[in-house]
Amino acid sequence: MQLSEEFDDLTEDYIRSRGWIRADEIIYDYKKAGEGNMNFVVRVQTTKKNFIIKQSRPYVEKYQQIAAPIERIEVEKKYYEYIKENEFLQKYSPEIKDYDPRYYTLVMQDLGYGSDFMGLYSKSDQINKNEIQELVQYLLVLHSLSVTNFPANDKMKALNHEHIFVYPFLEENGFDLNSIQPGLQELALGLKTDKGLKEKIALLGEKYLSTGNTLLHGDFYPGGWLKVDSGLKVIDPEFAFMGDAEFDLGVMLAHLKMAEVDPNLIHFCKDTYLENRKLDEELLNKYTAIEILRRLIGLAQLPLSLSLEVKKDLIDQAVKAF
């Protein structure tokens, strides 16, 4: 049963068969809930309530030519189950209503209408000091959890590893970066032909693939931060895994830099975390750097409004971390 974008009798029969709505409820709206990268997500509105249905498929929803482990939705469910035991983290997450393992379908609380922080890249949105502090506090509490038996999520880690540490640095990967921005392909060539740099990146990739002792969100970037009426929320933890705390914070810092957030706020973000938890700053800087590099020259492009010169400066700074 693969849910369709258009509401039909088969979809309604499935929803009713699972008991997600009562017999007297009428579905009057069914539509995509945002532009999800990894999964198919719809908001269902009935005469009684709203809820979200999220379904994973054997490919990446945004890039359907890329195969992806369908069981990733089970990892997301497990992540939410772990953090619901923590009063602080629970308020940032949707409540899980049901899970259908046959069709990899998760039903969740509708957090309400709002927006993510993707507008940071185009300068159509901003992030303030209080929001950054909340997000850092979320990471600090998450990273302090005592977690055992969390799924290895090896297949998702392998997918992420390929697109962070390998694919962007292949000389011939079939992706013409000049189609994104004229001159970007030539700018990236220096990275793709730097054997020493690629060896250092490969070593960092091995570190990423190793099993750590800290539960990570795994994709802590503006697309997973929501602003709704009830406050700030954090979603989409299908990349969650046990790893290095430096990775989560590094990803966050990388995106704040690429969004050209006020450098004082970026320093505040880093300092707030490090004042409360000690990290390996060299490793943190490398994870920050690799996220910048893969986003600028890899397949997972962002809606950036950066000139080629600014991208070159970001790349040069990132390379220095290695």
What is the compact description of this entry?
This protein has 322 residues and is α+β, with helices and mostly antiparallel strands.
Task: Describe the protein.
The chain is an alpha+beta fold and 322 residues long. It has eleven helices and ten strands. It has helices spanning 9-17, 72-83, 87-90, 129-143, 154-166, 184-192, 195-209, 245-258, 263-276, 281-297, 308-320, and strands spanning 27-32, 40-46, 50-55, 96-100, 105-109, 114-116, 214-216, 225-228, 231-234, 241-243. The strands form three sheets. The chain has a five-stranded antiparallel sheet, with helices on one face. A hairpin with a 2-residue loop joins strand 8 (225-228) and strand 9 (231-234). The chain is globular and about 65 Å long. The model has no long low-confidence stretch (mean pLDDT 94).
